[in-house]
Amino acid sequence: MACSTASLAATLLALALMFQACLAGRRLTALVQEPAITMKYHKGALLTGRIAVNFVWYGNFSAPQRAAITDFVSSLSAAAQPEPSVATWFKTARKYYASSKVRFPALQLGSHVLDQSYSLGRRLTDRDLLKLAAKGGRSRAINVVLTADDVAVDGFCMSRCGTHGASPRSRSGRFAYVWVGNPASQCPGQCAWPFHQPVYGPQSAPLTPPNGDVGVDGMVISLASMIVGTVTNPFGNGFYQEGSADAPLEAATACAGVYGKGAYPGYAGSLLVDQTSGASFNANGANGRKYLVPALVDPDTSSCATLGN
C-alpha cells in the first residue's frame, strides 16, 4: 500500500487547501464546528526500536537544499530546540503508540545515496521509486527518495506531491519508504502552497519560505506529512480514518491545508514570522532552522492540532 498526496483535480475545496495530503478535504472551522476525526488502529505492525532514515537523492540537489531537508529529519528528535519546535510537533505521533503496546521508534539519520546521473531516466514510475528506495537500508529503515525539479514522476502534480509505502516481504527484510518530489518548476502552485500562489481556489499572496527555497520548503511539508504517515501507518494496516484502505486519511493528511490556528481554505492559519527574513513558519528546528509543518490529528482530542494551540 502506498499513500499519495491530495488529488489536485478533486473538489475546489481540496485544491484550495493544498496539497501535501492524502485525498484530504477540510471543513471551514471558522464557520462550522469540526466533527471529531477518529483514527482507528487496524492492528497491523508498527515501527519500533532504532530506525535509520536513509536518503536517496535523485537528480541534482545543491548542498544547501540537502542540508535544509536533512536538518528537518534531525529536528524530529533533536534536543534544545526553541519552542514551538519540530520535536514537540512530532510528539503528537508518539501518542498513537500508547494504544498499540509498541514502543515509539527512535529515528536517526542514516546513509545518503547521490544519483546525479539520473540512472533510471527523468521519468519515473512507482516501480522505479521502489527500486530507488531499495538503495537505502533493507530492514529497520525508512528510505526517503527525493526527486529533483526536472524529474517527472507518474502522478506528480496531477494527483500527488509525495507518497509512502513499504517494500514486499523478503528474507532480506522489509523497509518503509517515502517519496517526495521538488515542485519548484513543475507545480509550485500545487505542491508548494502556501509558499506559492495557488493555481485554483481562493487567491492570496504567497508566504516567504523559511529556508529561502520555495521548492525545498514545499518538499519539507510533504516530507513531514509522509514521515508521520509512515510512523503511524507503515504497512497499510496501522492508524488511519475509516474508509478506503487504498487511500486512507492519516494523522497528517486528515488535516489538509491546516498549519496554524484559524486556518480555512486559502489561509494557512496564524503563523510566526521571522523578523529578519519575513519568512513564515510554525516550528523551530535543528541548527537554527525554521520550518512549516502540517497540523496533526491529536488522538487525545480527535481534532487537528497545530503548534501554539
- Uncertain regions spanning at least 5 consecutive residues: 5-32
Strand content: 15-25%
Count of discrete domains: 1
Could you tell me the radius of gyration in angstroms? Answer: 18 Å
Return the average pLDDT rounded to an integer. 88
**Count of individual beta strands:** 16
Task: Identify the strand order in the major beta sheet.
Answer: 1-8-9-6-3-4
Helix proportion range: 10-25%
* Shape annotation: globular
What is the element string, with H for helices and E for strands?
Answer: EHEEHHEEHEEEEHHEEEEEEE
Q: Work out the oligomeric state of the chains in this entry.
A: single chain
Word description of this protein:
β13 and β14 (290-291) form a beta hairpin. The chain is globular. α2 packs parallel to α6. The strands form six sheets. Strands 1-8-9-6-3-4 form a six-stranded mixed sheet, with helices on both faces. The protein has a two-stranded antiparallel sheet with strand order 2-10. The protein has one domain (3-305). It is an alpha/beta fold. The chain has helices spanning 12-17, 63-75, 86-96, 126-133, 188-191, 214-232; strands spanning 3-4, 39-41, 50-58, 106-115, 123-124, 141-147, 152-153, 162-166, 176-181, 239-241, 272-273, 280-281, 283-284, 290-291, 296-298, 303-305. The protein has six helices and 16 strands.
